[in-house]
Design brief:
Order of helices and strands of chain B: HHHH
Radius of gyration of chain A: 32 Å
Strand content of chain B: under 5%
Strand content of chain A: 5-15%
Distance between the termini of chain B: 17 Å
Oligomer: heterodimer
Helix content of chain B: over 70%
Shape of chain A: globular
Distance between the termini of chain A: 44 Å
Largest interface: A-B, 15 and 15 residues
Number of helices of chain A: 40
Amino acid sequence: MGTENPNRTNFSPRPMTSPFSAPQNASPFSSAGPVAGPESSAFRPNNPIASSQVPPSFSSGPPAFRSLQPGRSNDPAGPPPPSSYGQPQTGSFQRFSSPQFSPAQVPSPQTSFGEQTVVAPPVRPPAGPFSSPPVSFQLRPQPPIPVGSPPQSINTVQPGMNAASSIGSPFAAPGTNLQPSSPPMRATYSATQGTMQSAFTGYPSQQPNAVLQAPPVNSVAFPPQQGGYTPGPPAASRPYLSQQGSYMQSPPVAAPGGIYSRDRMQHPSSLPPTGPAQGLVEDFSSLHLGSVPGSLDAGIDSKALSRPLDGDLEPKSFAEMYPLNCSSRYLRLSTCGIPNSQSLASKWHLPLGAVVCPLAEAPEGEEVPIVNFVTTGIIRCKRCRTYVNPYVTFTDHGRKWRCNICSLLNDVPGEYYAQLDASGRRIDLDQRPELTKGSVEFIAPTEYMIRPPMPPLYFFLIDVSVCAVRSGMLEVVAQTIKSCLDSLPGFPRTQIGFITYDSTVHFYNMKSSLTQPQMMVVSDLDDIFVPLPDDLLVNLSESRTVVDAFLDSLPSMFQENVNVESAFGPALKAALMVMSQLGGKLLIFQNTLPSLGAGRLRLRGDDARVYGTDKEHTLRVPEDPFYKQMAADFSKFQIAVNVYAFSDKYTDIATLGTLAKYTGGQVYYYPNFVSSVHKDKLRHELARDLTRETAWEAVLRIRCGRGVRFTSYHGNFMLRSTDLMALPAVDCDKAYAMQLCLEETLLTTDTVYFQVALLYTSSSAERRIRVHTVAAPVVIDLGQMYRLADTGAVVSLLSRLAIEKSLCYKLEEARASVQLRIVKALREYRNLYAVQHRLGGRMIYPESLKLLPLYGLALCRSTPLRGGYADAQLDERCAAGYTMMALPAKKLLKLLYPNLIRLDEYLLKSSFADESENIWERLPLAAESLDSRGLYIYDDGFRFVIWFGRMLSPDIARSLLGEDFATDYSKVFLTERDNEMSRRLTRIIKKYRESDPSYYQLCHLVRQGEQPREGFFLLANLVEDQVGGTNGYTDWILQLQRQVQQNA
Amino acid sequence: MDLEPFLWLIFFLMNMGLIAFNLFQIVSLSDLEADYLNPYESSSRINSVVIPEYLLHGAFCILFLLTGQWFFFVVTLPIAYLNFRKFMKREHLIDVTEVFRVLSAEKKLRVVKLGFYFVLFILVMIRLVFSVINSTVDESEAIHFLGLF
């Protein structure tokens, strides 16, 4: 590539490093063994660190490197060195790697290195002194020995080169030069950027896979070295040193193992890959490029605002950096750059943490591999109990492994032993998914069981009072359960049982020898007891006929019931008594407010005096401690509670929901349940609840490297110890969030590892451990933290915090806290650039968080937080709050910013060739997007609203709705009619539903101008519009901007 | 005057009792923190002594009032008020579901209380000693120390 000139300048630093490093490094390398160690070390560490500090000089360098790298990339894998030598240019790069193998051999590459030599010669002599002062150098094992030998030879050649490149000058000045380098370097840097990029782009084309990883590596390697050089200037060097320090540790730890090098190469190397590295280097210049910050002028063009019309975009670069990380389906960090100091962390005003969805559904072909350590037992670190993962390093010829989290050296059990090949990889690597995949599932031996694995158990607690019968709920539930009996997981061990209740509690004896279930009524509510010791809970396959008979007769049994009372509390206690032996899942179908016995509730939600006062929030927290106590007991006995509530009146979801909240359950709320309308929804959601793959009696723990600690957890679960979440049942629709903090003022490592472990019993009676591992770089500057931020995780954490806050404070305060955090974050970001740039009235935000303001706005307008007390029913608010506390990030984002899609054009089109594409085009959520001649569908993942424009051609309406098209849409239902258009619409809706099967989206039809339905279903949810007293998107942005500038 | 040593002995024992209750709670909380106890056990342990502690403190406080020990009464009043308020707001018991969220605050509160009781312990002890001395020596030789308390 054209890199030569720039490269050379860049290169110059390297030689220097080599000399320095050599003395110091020697120790780490030696331990590692000559084979691979050095290379890896050199590569990996640098990226993150170097990029930020060293930027200027490096920047110029990197491009050249990258181009070169192609050849290089291979190195990590193994033997590449020789080949690399052959190539002159690449030689320089390779030479780092190659040297490792055999320092002595270096000679050939030297010519190419010549450039570097310029620097090197001067450096070398001083090297001795230098090395000693800068601690950092020593730390870096990377460039060390291998490089050392080659550099000398190089030096001689290069001098001329340096002169040629103006940039080089700073460097050229031997040791001293290095220090001052910073200012000059910048200049060079910016100049070089152009080249860098070009190199970049070209690069991928040349070598797709290998290249990608490699390039980052090279660039990375450089920066660290330079950093090392700089020792002199205190200010500049500072950050470096700290980082370097971190390097040191890691290298020593990992370096010893040949594998280490391998890992580095593959993952870490990818780390700061080109994208980040460039960004870092560019930092300010990037502004000019316009890639990083966006800008807004006062008179904003609303079209210029960013919107998530492509759905949730996860930061791809991060996954590329660490290909061994688990997928973002399972774990997302709110920023992938972990701050290296508490002071830096305190400047990150957004939540710092992770969102974990341990059982997320994996697409076909990406299932989590199952590993069975039958003979060896599960390999874990002795000290921190970390599970073996791709980031551990093997040393001592494969006899020991080093824990990546606590860096303890563990023995490799004899059965697990495998030799290391020349590059330090285990030779059996490809047969070891636990060493190559970020997510694995171990089959746990008996040490992980307190009792034999429990069978899947479903227990139903069904309200049979008059409302339940009248609304048709009872019938739908009975039918649905019956239809799901065949697909309940865990056949043939599945257990099942029922209790019904109104003013008394009814038990059912389902003994397999009976033909009809026997009903037993207990009316002593104060001292509830279980009338039968067993047979209330039976094995489904043995008692199938009895269960069928029961479900068939259930609706008719209570047909004539006129009882309006609900002895919910006693029934709950009875269920606990029945289930306490085994645990399992308890499904509660509740139609009225509990009115009898323990746990009866008041109609407090109907007390209008409380609304709007300081006490309003008490309505959102459970009233009776009975429910919390019950929830704690359920959790203790491994019972998960799912609450289905149906009432048209106040049912105190806030209180009932606690049962689900602390037991890892879920709240389903069907206000105003009418079976003719909601039947399908209830049927789908209940069926999914019963049949989806469920993990039983689970505990979840997330471990992380030293210096970092998880402090708070948010979601539906109960903590069993400070960091152990008890989850009686988990499934793919549940996510948990946690916040972390730095324990030490300064992190000394360059990478922080997180490991989520979920220990559970599968429906097939196996005890399993699902392990997800993630590595994240430690960063030293705020800009990089922002650059690596993940909006989805940030919003997920923000919303959980805000919802929790709304339980103790007013809604306004909860919303204000969201806004304040966003403002603070943007202000901090602005301050980063305010010095070098005249920002004027522009709004500056990192590219990665460009959607944060919008989601913040949407969050403030979401059901749990919106408006005042009158803007959402209390029960609905609480139910939505419970739901959002458990939603995975992706679904949450969709709920906050739903899809709005225009359908009429598609329906009218004669051919449906491009069916798959066109119907996914999302529109901004604003009234302007709605054309009165159109037909739109609004999909938030929980319901569909189909909006008919006023001027929509009657033909369309007629063919979709039949002759009802002109009547009141609240009474019209969408059914498939016998024409192409209707079929097509049905097909689309089906497709949407299939794409998001967690909930069933009921269709609500709305015609333009039909109030209040239109307002309620759609207009209030168009988050970009100004509705009532709330902000529209542009106002919101302006308001944020004003606040950001106020104290800037 | 002869009753005084007895009175102070009672105060002394009550104070010991309060210290014991608090220590017990703190130990339970630390065990929970260190994962030696599960939250169920820990909170049921603590909750079982909360009411006795409040009652004892109430009695302590009222006894000071009745015996005219104004200084001690005033000193113990704030905690009595705090207890009373917590009780009325039904916040006096540890909530097992949220125990980890309030752990550090609860612990801090109890440590502060414990410190307070220790200081009180010293004062009561001094009074006890003096009252014993005074009752055994002549009235004329009695040590009058009125100081603050």
